[in-house]
């Protein structure tokens, strides 16, 4: 009887839906529901996990972590939430203070970078050594990296790289700059890029890159091969990760230097020809690399996109295309450049899944600091 009933049981109507229609239905779901529906069937799981579909699905940006310049503030970072539980499908509250970390044993914690839900911190511990009957000297141990997920409260301490993190003394290699690379739609593993810089009078040029892989649990030190393209690469304090490649903004030549997670591909992409003065800012949005330049004479924000060049006769496979040029006064709705209201505003991020720019106003009310 039970066997007959099982034979007569009809498959779910969803099983007869074509993949294109099913994907169209799934795009209308909130992020948390989409994650739950991965367990419905293998077909649903494959469709939801397919990189070709990921940008069509809900990509909820729940908030933004950013470094706070006030070193007296604890913790030395801030979090601004962008979505409510009703909007994002009931996502749990993020532990913005990172209280799950053993902070009592860390004398310092610096927020260096974030990427797709993970944070990169540089921490240090203090130890005391006693000399004589009453004399006590406090020393700080070697700094180390921690990668954590505020949503799941999971964290890991990374092994030491080839050069100690956070060094900036004149007789040491400069290792103050590091960035995080993570794309959960492609791989569950993350990478950390530590720049090894050499003091060259006013600026430090990049001599090597130490790359950590959570897959192998090891660091790999790679001597810079950017010198094959340019004499030296001078880092402009800003990096962004996209499609397995870390991109660095540079000064002097105003180019973008890139290296992949395996340390095999090194590339230097010249900045747009129209950009001559100052340093540009790089970012990624909707799967594309952006070069953003503030044109001060015109008081406008010029946004370039790096596109594949389909012209086979061109010597370059990629070229910058001006996507948009926006008047700062029109963008912020707060008056001309010399307006007192304009002095504090700065671009801090680009929305990863939409045409939105996030500005920060340090003098505004807490609820209006971001727009």
From TrEMBL:
Annotated Gene3D superfamilies: 1.20.1280.50
Protein's name according to its UniProt entry: F-box domain-containing protein
Top-level taxon of the source organism: Eukaryota
InterPro entries reported for this sequence: At3g26010-like (IPR055290), Beta-prop_At3g26010-like (IPR056592), F-box-assoc_interact_dom (IPR017451), F-box-like_dom_sf (IPR036047), F-box_dom (IPR001810)
Domain called F-box: residue spans: 11-58
SMART domains xref list: FBOX
Biological source species: Urochloa decumbens
